[in-house]
Amino acid sequence: MKIKKAVIPVGGLGTRFLPYTKVIPKEMLPIWDIPIIQFIIEEAINSGIDSILFVTSKEKYSIEDYFDRNFYLEYFLNKNKDKEKLDILNKIPQNFKIYSVRQKEARGLGDAILHAEDFISDDYFAVFLPDDLIFSKKPVIKQMIEVLEKYRKPVLGVERVPWKMVDAYGIIKPRMIAKRIFEIEDIVEKPKKNKAFSNLGVVGRYILPGNIFSYIKKTKPGVKGEIQITDSLRILMKEQGILAYEFEGIRCDTGNKYDYLLAILTYANMKKDLKNKIKKDIKKIFKIKI
Description:
The chain has 290 residues and is of the alpha/beta class. The protein has ten helices and 13 strands.
């Protein structure tokens, strides 16, 4: 079973990164020398996906522009025989189709996914939340597609999170059916520690069926008027069943400033030309007294 389409919600305001995000989308923040969104697109392409829908807002046009060609810039670099810079440009993924739809009002993840209804037919599709950057040998969505192919059920990516942080995640009640694979018996959004089923938290990777939209439409808005995808998934779980897959990889949360900094350091630590230099310079920094 092949997954050819993906949905990436990028309509958020990125207020945790103000003032930078007043004019620049949070998804364009660099992890060393590559914007966050490029890592997400590369994961999608390397998983066999060739059509991607951005659920966006009017401030986010630069995301689409980034994956478009800049002929004047290419002409300038060619004219100056700057092969190094041209090679950098050529590393930006081009081999996929870009689509976009605007989410005029931020009304939750469920509402963002609902905007993809006309883009998706009855087939399964992937959802990437770009705040979750995952470094892995095999793309996480590809790992999840393999689970889908075997069990023919929707799949959510999960990770064991610290117990003190379960109130920041959708937490599942798991029943193990194979190594790293669980049947979800229940799911609750951001429970208190003493009410949590487990510490297996849902993170930003989903493989959902085309009929998810009918379940989202059945979901009533919450207190803030937002439609939570967790509520829709509970309905889907009861009627069709959902699996959770504890993926292999290192997840970095880029949704806040501190964890974003850790993501940069994690990526730098994986690059041979930076690893030792970073370690040495960090030791120097910690010796500085102000």
